[in-house]
Amino acid sequence: MSTQKTFIASIIIINLLLFSCGSSKQTVYPVTSYDQAKQSISTVYDADNKLGYTITKDNSHLYVTVNTQDKVTQLKMIRNGVTIFFDNEGEKNKHLSVQYPIAKENQTLDIEKIKKMRENGNRQEILQKMMASLGSDIKVTENKEERIINKELNGEGISVNHKAAIEGLSYTLKVPLSYIASQSDSKSIGISIKGMKQPDGTNAGLSRVGRSSDRIKRAMAMRGGMRGNNPDINQLKELLNDIDIWIPIELK
């Protein structure tokens, strides 16, 4: 092959590589001022995690809303809390975060309790009762230092609004715009929801679930399962899975 042909071939390969890299880049979310008419347009749905999110702002605050109609995701949000990370350098840093509700220590997956809740009451009523018991504490973590504030009465300009309705569970966190302020054009927001722990206290891991799937199936069969009377190992895996989403943003 001549030098010229080799050079042209190299250029083509480099261009293909650049195109491939560019096409896999996550779309930057444009954070604009809140507009009721455009709210539905700005909502993004993450199908893999069955979670929708909307990010808006005003002159002084940033608003992050997460919502879901998925019952499994709702349970994880309520039991383990939603943690929002604010990274003003686009490096997926976790130096600054806000969590609500604050997850109780060592909460494990109790299939029997979930089954009884479904048998003994209206699903919407159960959800409302669970939300009413969440408390008012918010955990703010900044450079590994933690502090607890009230979700309505605090001097930091932070608040949480959550509601359960027919269309699903919705959670809106309001924080000062300074949480994401920097000279950098690369900013990102992280959404984290931890999965439930197994009854033996082990962390959520599909490999562990796979190794113990027969035991779990037998337990679910004896207890009537979680969806009708049929054991559903896939639903159990969803309960154990963590949700971690990072969203590149641009303030408009």
Structure notes:
It is a single chain. The protein has 252 residues and is α+β, with helices and mostly antiparallel strands. The protein contains eight helices and twelve strands. A hairpin with a 3-residue loop joins β3 and β4 (61-68). The chain starts with a helix and ends with a strand.
Write the layout of secondary structure elements.
Elements: H1 3-23, E1 29-33, H2 39-42, E2 44-46, E3 51-57, E4 61-68, H3 71-80, E5 82-87, E6 96-100, H4 111-120, H5 123-132, E7 137-142, E8 145-150, E9 159-165, E10 168-176, E11 187-193, H6 206-211, H7 213-222, H8 233-240, E12 243-251
Parallel strand pairs: 1-3, 1-12
Antiparallel strand pairs: 2-3, 3-4, 4-10, 5-6, 5-11, 6-7, 7-8, 9-10, 11-12
- State the distance separating the first and last CA atoms: 51 Å
Mean pLDDT: 76
Q: Low-confidence parts lasting 5 or more residues at pLDDT below 50?
A: 3-24, 204-213, 222-231
In one word, what is the shape? globular
- DSSP, total strands: 12
Helix/strand order: HEHEEEHEEHHEEEEEHHHE
Helix proportion: 25-40%
Our Rg estimate from Cα atoms comes to 22 Å
In DSSP terms (H or I, runs of 4 or more residues), the helix count works out at 8
Beta-strand portion reads 25-35%
**Biggest sheet character:** 12 strands, mixed
The SS-based structural class is: alpha+beta
